[in-house]
Amino acid sequence: MRVHVVSDVHGNATDLARAGEGADALICLGDLVLFLDYADHSRGIFPDLFGVENADRIVELRTARRFEEARAFERSLWAGLDRYAVILGAVRKQYREMFAAFPTPTYATYGNVDVPAFWPEYAGPGTTVLDGERIELGGLVFGFVGGGLRSPMRTPFEISDEEYAAKVEALGEVDVLCSHIPPDVPELTYDTVARRFERGSRALLDAIRRTRPRYSLFGHVHQPLVRRMRIGTTECVNVGHFAATGRPWALEW
Predict the structure, then answer these.
(1) CA-to-CA distance for 226 and 197, rounded, in angstroms?
(2) Model-level pTM?
(3) pLDDT digits (tens, 9 = 90+) for 68-81
(4) What is the DSSP code string of 62-85?
(5) Alpha carbons 164 and 72: distance in angstroms, whole number
(6) CA pair distance 175, 181, nearest whole angstrom
(7) Peptide bond just before 105 cis, omega within 30 deg
């Protein structure tokens, strides 16, 4: 059996349409929406609305961790606009493209920038959405945990540590633990380009140590200090920033 795994698609529908080629199934670990590309400030909902110069400024402030200044600057740009309606309209447009590109079968969970309430509207019969749930593929049990933890970035699907831990606990023992964010390990959570630690999950780390799955697969950190490491007998793998690479990570057994 061969499964391809992607994460952090961020608007790359072209490569997503080919991501399942040669595989029995595709697994997507979330972040379909592209609000702002930190590598190319001309891409995303924000620069489409406000231009590249303003995108440059937002990235500069966020990278410097000047989050209050960044939020104040954004508020000034949105003055006179219905921010909620404009963003959700743009998200819907991206979701139409992303879900249409998914091959059959696809098993997907949410990222921290996703809007879960919209997914049932766009997920076709070949796409199964899972969060705090398990499936069996080729004799292996896969468990899925979607979303991210609360952070200064205030992205759309951030939840409390307690709510996240409850979803991890609901999985029980699995062979492959699939999540958007990594376990809370410094080498896996530090982004070398953004120059900051992203939030990882202590609950994921505890589950890995307790239940010893074969694999822990995740994304979220686009340029991690370490992409792959072992925690006990578990192989922990950042499957890659698909928006930039256009290449899925392959799991064969």
Answers:
(1) 12
(2) 0.92
(3) 999 999 999 999 89
(4) HHTT-HHHHHHHHHHHHTTS-HHH
(5) 29
(6) 18
(7) yes
As a whole number of angstroms, the distance between CA 9 and CA 100 comes to 13
CA angle in degrees (0–180, nearest 5) for 66-72-75: 140
pLDDT value at 243 more than 90: yes
Query: Which tens digits make up the pLDDT trace of 122-132?
Result: 999 999 999 99
SS3 54: helix
Tokens of 58: 């937002």
Q: Which of 25, 11, 179 is nearest to 95 (CA)?
A: 11
Residue 194: per-residue pLDDT: 82
Measured N-to-C along each axis, helices 161-171 and 202-211 cross at an angle, to the nearest 10 degrees, of 20
State the distance between the two ends of the chain, measured CA to CA, in whole angstroms: 5
> Minimal CA–CA distance to 6: which of 253, 199, 129, 178?
178
Task: Give the orientation angle of helix 52-63 with respect to helix 67-78, to 10 degrees.
Answer: 160
Question: Of 110, 111, 95, 112, whose CA–CA distance to 45 is shortest?
Answer: 95
Measuring CA to CA, how many Å separate 193 from each of 38, 108, 190, 243?
Answer: 9, 27, 9, 15
Q: What is the distance between the alpha carbons of residues 178 and 112, in angstroms, rounded to a whole number?
A: 14
Sheet of 215-218, strand order: 133-137, 140-145, 176-179, 215-218, 234-238, 228-231
CA angle 3, 117, 152 (to 5 degrees): 90
What the block records as the tokens of 76 is 């000034």
Pairing of strands 2-6, 249-252: antiparallel
**What are 173's two structure tokens?**
């023992």
Beta carbons of 108 and 72 less than 8 angstroms apart: no
